[in-house]
Structures are given as structure tokens and as C-alpha cells.
Amino acid sequence: MITEKAPGKLYIAGEYAVVENGYPAILVALDQFVTCSISESAKEMGQIISRQYNNDQLSWRRMGDEMVVDKRDNPFSYILSAIRVTEEYARSYSRALRIFDLHIDSQLDSQSGRKYGLGSSAAVTVATVKALCRFYNLPVNKDQIFKLAAIAHFEVQGNGSLGDVAASVYGGWISYHSFDRQWLAQQRQYLDIHSLIDLPWPDLKIESLKAPKNLELLIGWTGKPASTSQLVDKISLFKARQQAEYRKFLDESKACIQRMVEGFHMQDLEKIKQEIRYNRELLKQLGTNSGVDIETPVLNDLCQIAEEFGGAAKTSGAGGGDCGIVAIDSSADFKSVLKSWAKNHIEQLPLNVHFIKDAKYKVEEYLPIN
Ligand code: PMV
Ligand code: MG
Q1: SS3 sequence of 156-190
Q2: Is the pLDDT of residue 197 over 80?
Q3: Measuring from each residue's beta carbon to the nearest atom of ligand 1, which residues come in under 6 Å?
């Protein structure tokens, strides 16, 4: 049995702007995982089994007389896409495809079906790609795993930046510049997957960052799940209608993230905090201008409480629910933040940043198949 795991993530800053090619965001990987185990099946039929995804629901809408299912919130879509893409890559190495059972276990979706917004679709995609790369004995490094998982995820979700996939593959703190996904979609039609994985991808840039020692990251959960893809769709409408305002938001977000990255390079917590606050304002403004509820009242409470005790806080990710993040000096009174959150029905998620060793899989290191 082969087992691989991939961590969940949170956005620290740069949300929405990072959806545009080449625009940056900062993310962290967290120590909550999706695990994927694969074993060869002796039967003619393989199984894909998940404890958490049994009672999942489907969203659908009408388009004329057709019932159109929104696959983007269904984890099985990501698992199947990851299998399809990785097997395409395996074929480029002349591997014979086999029948297997695949077990998924997710700490990112609670047993009661609660979703925290920690990037379960990205993590399930990455875990499946990693497990299958080992199952088929494919020599891959992090860059190649990222590209395979990014293709698989993009072919289901269609409108994301793939920053969550990057955080899940590289771990720790990263700055991520999104690649040109239109280019990818075009090249997918002409190029074989092997050549595509070997090429540099336009605008893609991923840098590992080192957080200052005194930076304590707090995570608050609103208790309300939010659908990222639906929120991103709504911002796309704003982009079409108010182009000038949208461009202004993009430029300001980019400049803010560049300054924040400098803060990381200089190990300057105050500078990082200042830019978190600024990014919060940009996102609030984007919400007001577009009519999208990014910073909900609960997220606003979460941020206000953290600010009272000297933290710099903002929504994390698409907002509309899910989580908020706080950067605070480890010597500050952050326990009071947690107490006040609890009084206001905001749950702290006591998670840590997860780092991934730079393991480059080598074919020779694998156990021979059979
Ligand atoms: O809500 P999350 O954690 O899935 O983050 C979404 C971040 C966006 O920038 C709004 C979308 C994206 O794909 O980057
Ligand atoms: Mg979210």
C-alpha cells in the first residue's frame, strides 16, 4: 500500500488579484492533511472510497431545459481529474495502467461534514497525484507535482488561481504568482503532457518565504462555509462592468504584496502587519464596490477583536465565511484574542504551519513493483 498526504492551506494576502495572470499572493500550508492510499486491486473493478465524502451534496442549476451540475464543490471530481492527468503522464513513461483501490481520508473536512475552507479540493488533488506518481514509479519533483496537480485542479474548477495547490505542494510560507491559464488551456490541446510539464509556464513564480520568529499566526473560523468558486464568479462580473476600478484594485494589491514580501525578506513583523491591514482595506473596498459580501459581520468581529489586542487581521481566501487570519507578536497578549473570540462564537483553529522537505523522488528509491 502506498500512502501520501498533502496539507491544507490558508491565504494570508493577495486574494482575488492573484486570480489574474502574474499577480501575487502569500499563503501558508497547515498541518491538517488529506491522505491518499493506493493498493493494487485483484479484481476487475477498482474502488474510490472516502470516509468524509459519503454524504456529499451536489449543486446544480437550470440552463434552459438542461440540469447542469456544478462539479466544482464535489471532491470526487478532483480525485478523478487527478487520476486522469497522472495516468496520462504515466503513459508518457510507457507505464502499463493498472486497477487500484484508492482510499481518501481528509482532516480538512470534519466528520460532521463541516468545511473549514482550508483548501480540501487542492489537497485532495495533490495527495492523489503524489500517491499515483509513486504507484506508477514516476520520477517527479515538487515542480512537476505542482504542474500535474494544477492541470487536474484547473480542469475541474476553471476559475481559480491555483495558489492553494502551490501551498499544498511546497509547504511553509510561500509567495505565489499565478500562471497564464489561458496559455495552459491552449497548450493542452496541442502538446503532449510530458512536453507541457517540462516547459516553463508563463508568469508562474513560487518563492518560499521565511517568517520572522516573533510572528504568531492565529486562525479564526466563522462556522460558516463559503463557496470560493461562486464568489470568484461574482467578482468576474464586477471585472467586466467596472474595468477601471478593478485594474486599480489589481495594481494596489500587487504593490501591497510586494511590500509584504519585502517585510518577510527583512524579517520585519511590523511591516508585514501594516500590509495585512492595507490588504484588508483593499478587499473590503472590493467587496463594497462589487456588492460581494467578502468581509461578513462575523469576519469583521474577528478582525476587530484581534486589532484590539495589537494583531493585524483580515479575511482569508474568498471570504463570505470560512476563516480569518491574524498576525500578532508572539509576546503580545494573544490569549485574550482567543478568549474574546470564543465569547463571540468564533472558534480558533489551533493549527501550525507545515513545512515539506524538498524530497525529489527518484525512480531507484522506489520499491520495485510486484
Ligand atoms: O477561499 P479560499 O481559501 O479558497 O481562497 C480563494 C482565494 C481567491 O483568490 C479569491 C481565489 C483563488 O483561486 O485564488
Ligand atoms: Mg474560502
Answers
A1: HHCCCCCHHHHHHHHECEEEEECCCHHHHHHHHHH
A2: yes
A3: 11, 15-16, 18-19, 117, 160-161, 163-164, 228, 232, 317-318, 322
